[in-house]
Each structure stands twice: as structure tokens, then as C-alpha cells.
Amino acid sequence: MSAVTERLSVLFPQNGLLLVETQILQLDRYAALLKEWNEKMNLTAITDDEGICVKHFLDCALALRCVESAGANLAGGKVIDVGTGAGFPGIVWKILRPDMELTLLDSLQKRLTFLNEVCGELGLQAELVHLRAEEGGRDARYRLQFDAVAARAVAGLNVLCEYCLPFVKKGGVFAAMKGPQLKEELPQAEGAIRKLGGTVRGVPQYELPGEGERAVALIARTGELKSLYPRHGGKIRKEPLT
Question: Which domain holds residue 100?
């Protein structure tokens, strides 16, 4: 039994989550590939087994539980992970809910090359899309097409909303994984959420062992999306919606 397998077998049940053997083996292999590929390209600053298990795997799993506890049914749904990077939370969510239809979007092809390897090794089906978020949000193949949109990024919530809400279909939800700073970011994002046709449905919180408080902003599409959004290029970052 590897160190990752051993740790996951204890860590997840301690936090009220159950994994079957196949899922543990998939996460173990994912961790191995992450460490292997990280030696040749910058995927994550977290490379120790404990960090991967807690800060990546458990964090994504607890966020998924928050999303589903709020009423979003991802089983059989269409889910897109925007700016997926090394595959968080998308790959973890797909392992835990294999019947979801997953799309992984990233602006760097080398990350998608890694994720293609991960999907192949783990036996996962996912569409890999090489586009910038604002390009994907204007593309008819992806605009307003998803039951759930996930993002775990450092951008402010007002910026993230313009990148991500254009993917959310009517009745769908955008799940923004955040830390304690969400309390400050949410009031600043109210204008952006309204302009993008969204409504905050909840901000469930959870404790990540040894890391403190985490939260997920759940923003549902309740209104229309104007053709103006998302705007082009760096305008989203330079002139965030208010």
C-alpha cells in the first residue's frame, strides 16, 4: 500500500467521505503522475503526499459535497472546469462522480497534454478544450451549455464570474472554490453577478484539516446573459465589473 493510498483510506472517512477501492487507486495514480510530470513542467507547488491528499484531493471532494448538498445534481450532468490547471477540481470530481460529463478547459496546451495522460491512465472520459476562458464563453459549443461550472483560481470573484458564468445554462450553477477572502470578495462581486444574470444561492463553508476555512460561492443562472459578456482580452482583469 502506497503512502497516498494509506492516507486517503483514513483521511476521507475522517471527514465523512467514503471512497471505493477503484477511486483510491485512481487518486493514488493521479498523485504519482502529478509528481512525475511536475518535475518537467510547473503544475503545482504542492508535491508532498500529505499536501496532495489534503490540499488537492480532500479540498476538491469537500467542495463537491457542498455543491451537491446545496441541491446541484452533478450525476449525469454536464460539468466544465474553467482554468483547470493540473485538473482541480475537475479530475477529482470525475473520479468521485464518474457518470458526470466532464469538460476541462485551459489556455495552456502543455497542461492539457498532462491531463490527457491522466485521463488515459485513470480510464476517465473528458473533453479537453484549449481555449482562454473568455474565448470559451463566447463559443457557441460551450456558451450556456453546462449544468455546473467549477473554478479554483486566485482571481477575485468579480473577475471569475465574468470568466465562468457565461458557461452556465439557465438553472445551472457556478461553484467558485475560495478561502476566507470570499467574505470580502462577495460584496464586491454583487454587481458583476447581477449583470451576468446570476443569483447567489449560498456560500457553504467547510474546514480543511490543518489549513483552515474554505468556502464555495454557489451562483445560479437565473437571468439572461447579454451578448456583451464575456468581454475581450485583458479588459476583464483591468476593468472588473462592478
Answer: 57-238
Report yes or no on 6 lying in a domain: no
The model's pTM: 0.96
Query: Phi/psi class of residue 95: alpha, beta or left (left: φ > 0; alpha: ψ in -120 to 50)?
Result: alpha
- Please name the residue that has the C-alpha cell 445534481: 73
Rounded CA separation 18/43 (Å): 27
For the chain, 242 residues long, give each residue's pLDDT as a single digit of tens.
Answer: 899 999 999 999 999 999 999 999 999 999 999 999 999 998 999 999 999 999 999 999 999 999 998 877 788 899 999 999 999 999 999 999 999 999 999 999 999 999 999 999 999 999 999 999 999 999 999 999 999 999 997 789 999 999 999 999 999 999 999 998 898 999 999 999 999 999 999 999 999 999 999 999 999 999 999 999 999 878 999 999 99
The label of the residue with cell 464555495 reads: 216
Distance from C-alpha of 107 to C-alpha of 89, rounded to nearest angstrom: 16
Q: 10 Å Cβ neighbour count for 238?
A: 9
CATH code, 119: 3.40.50.150
